[in-house]
Amino acid sequence: MANLWSGRFEKGMDELVEKFNASILFDQRMYACDIQGSIAHVTMLSEQGIVTPEEKDKIIAGLLDIKRRVDEGKLTFTVKDEDIHMAVEGNLIKDLGETGKRLHTARSRNDQVAVDTRLYLKEQIHQLLENLAYLQRVLLEKAEEYADQISIGFTHMQHAQPVTIGFHLMAYFQMFRRDMERLTDTLGRVDWCPLGSCALAGTTLPINRQRTAELLGFAHVTENAMDSVSDRDYALEFLSDASISMMHLSRLAEEFVYWNSQEFSYISIDDSFCTGSSIMPQKKNPDMAELLRGKVGRVYGDLMQLLTVMKGTPLAYNKDFQEDKEGLFDAIDTWRDSLRIFAKMIEKTTFRMDMIQANLSKGFLNATDIAEHFVKQGIPFREAHEIVGKMVKYCEHHGCDFDRLDAKAFQEIDSRITPDKLPDLSMEGCVNARVSFGGTAPSEVRRQIQVGREWLDSMAL
Question: Is 159 labeled as catalytic in the residue annotation?
Answer without folding.
Answer: no
